[in-house]
Prior knowledge:
single chain; 6-stranded mixed sheet; 24% strand; binds adenosine-5'-triphosphate; binds magnesium ion
Amino acid sequence: MSAFGHSLARLLKSGDVITLEGGLGAGKSTLARGLISRILEDAGLASDDIPSPTFTLVQPYPWPDDTDAGREIWHFDLWRLDGPDEVIELGFDEALSRHAMIIEWPDRLAGLLPAEALQIEIEPIDDGAARVLSIKGGEAAGWPERLASLAL
Ligand SMILES: Nc1ncnc2c1ncn2[C@@H]1O[C@H](COP(=O)(O)OP(=O)(O)OP(=O)(O)O)[C@@H](O)[C@H]1O
Ligand SMILES: [Mg+2]
């Protein structure tokens, strides 16, 4: 899950939205941490402290490309939220217009889920020894071509 996050980081552009679905312990935070750590390393920043935003709900990180001044990547964990109103209070609209986002428990977004999001569903199999990923991403954000170039 972590290695897959590293690979995905290579594809990420500044406005992207990635959603991670899967039950408790599926590996969502592990994937998110892998992706963010690679982005921070590319920016020459320390990547050993990437907390799961279970309690803070959202955690922003700097975006490496300095031609995109002020851009960040925001890691959301929406598990504790009840619905879209509370997501808006977290600054979701601002993030959407400006930052990349990786979002755990995207079902809380309901109608706020952007159509161009890359949607990843994680399913543990073999008593948790392995994971199956189902990945869906539309043409508008160029996901089919980008995923085809994914180095696994
Ligand atoms: N591909 C994998 N194979 C086996 N174990 C894995 C895999 N990916 C993650 N794990 C392990 O599964 C456990 C749970 O992972 P993680 O915390 O990322 O899940 P989560 O989906 O964020 O769960 P939660 O919703 O409870 O926060 C961790 O111990 C992690 O090391
Ligand atoms: Mg988690």
